[in-house]
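Reagents: none. Just compute today. DUF3810 domain-containing protein.
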Amino acid sequence: MPKKRTIAFALFLPVQWGIIQGLKTSPQFVEEYYSNGVYPYISMTERFLFGWLPFSFGDLLYTVLGILLIRWMWLRIKNKFKQPKRWITSSLATLSIIYFCFHLFWGFNYYRQPLHTILSLERDYTTEKLREYTTTLIQKANALHLQLTQNDSLKVVMPYSKHELRQLAIAAAKQNDDKIPLTYTQPSVKSSVYSIPLTYMGFNGYLNPLTNEAQVNYLMPSYKHPTTTSHEIGHQLGFAKENEANFIACLNSMVHENEYFRYSGYTFALRYCLAELYRREPEDTEELIDRVNYGIRLNYDEVRQFWLAYQNPMEPVFEAFYGQFLKVNNQPQGMQSYSYVVALLVNYGLEKFE
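Predicted 3D structure written out:
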């Protein structure tokens, strides 16, 4: 690009950063004018453009960007990093454009109002309330499990293909428009061609913020697909924070008409509640864990064994990087911010999932 334009784009990068810092203090403005203003039209347009493709355009885009990055590094090394002003300015200009597109197409959702404010829920809850909620959740999860297996010691095996599970998740999102404060149309949910590296990195899936395509790791056990797909749909609906997308995953799956889907949702919510309760009162929680059907625990162990099989020395690096990414994007607790989903679940109440 022309030199003047390159400099202008490069100088626009710190301006963007300043705007972002301002938006962090104005969640109501973001909520009204972006998340419920222009974003629904941006996201629907992107899903209309790319959703019909049988492959992930976003994964293809990442591949091209990766190749260009490798080529850029090779040229810099080949030229011994000569003319630093030129390539540094050009690099900053490119980064500025990507940074702008990331926020315009999706990223501003990080600075919207918290989901508990949107749903008029309390932010805090007592340990007693969590214990009562978890006890009821165990009863409902056990009942669903027994209905599906007729044996409390057998794990649930999904009788659907992973493609069928994705379609069930899409159907549930459409029928829950009255509960989710944003209409889900023009679905775009796909298996990621990068599922193998995603698995080694420890990720179930991701949303491509540049194309609004929901990417699901197809290697995961089928038991995890209902909630993972629903989680990524939550991101498409504009809930950028991981904990809030997890709540949308519960909402989408726990009210589903399909009992296998509900089972995945209830046990997903139960795992979070048990973990939080154990953190608060470990001895008492051990007794509650013993009440969970052995078959449910086998499903939990199935997922645990899957991830153990792909453990590698680089996984903590990826988790640390992603934790830092969350902190930069208005989630100060990083990976630990996932526990906020428990507050949303407890204060939302189980009766609304009936």
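The beta strands are 189-191, 205-208, 213-216.
Action item: order primers for follow-up constructs.
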